[in-house]
Design a protein that fits this description.
It is built from three helices and seven strands. It is an alpha+beta fold. It folds into two domains: 3-73 and 110-140, hypothetical protein PF0899 fold (2-Layer Sandwich); 75-108, no CATH class. It is elongated, with a radius of gyration of 19 Å.
Length: 141
């Protein structure tokens, strides 16, 4: 599978991640982006495609060669009948696994969040103690 085989949606998201991380690296005077971490709900359904699009989207940017880490967030729904948050038995089964009532309120599983950007500091920043011994700086977002 190549990035051309997936929809423009995934490529647009990959480009947005690269733009955000590159801007953050430039603002912090970093040499390059080492890694980007994202939390993505299972209902997004684009994790694999995003991996394929990330490398082409990052070429020639401060993110070139960066690793993309995706933490998958499981689906959970709110059962109003039981007054509890539950994990359905199947991905698209929006019924309470205990009482069987419909559970249309999704609590988690749809989110997409850029959680951290790991930067490689420039030599000047590393000499002022802004990075660890390897010259790496992590930014939690």
């Amino acid at each position: 599978m190549s990035c051309k085989d997936v929809t423009m949606h995934e490529l647009t998201i990959a480009n947005s991640l690269v733009e955000l991380a590159s801007a953050h690296a430039a603002e912090n005077g970093a040499r390059r982006v080492v890694a980007i971490s994202v939390r993505m709900g299972v209902l997004c359904g684009i994790g694999r495609s995003l991996y394929f699009c990330f490398e082409p989207a990052s070429r020639g940017t401060l993110c070139d060669g960066a690793r993309l880490h995706i933490e998958e967030v499981p689906l959970s729904v709110r059962c109003e009948h039981c007054d509890e948050t539950k994990v359905p038995k199947a991905l698209y089964n929006f019924r309470c696994p205990d009482c069987g009532y419909p559970t249309p309120k999704v609590v988690s599983g749809r989110e997409m969040e850029l959680t951290s950007i790991e930067l490689e500091a420039t030599e000047a920043a590393a000499s002022f103690g802004a990075a660890d011994d390897a010259g790496t700086q992590r930014s939690a977002l």
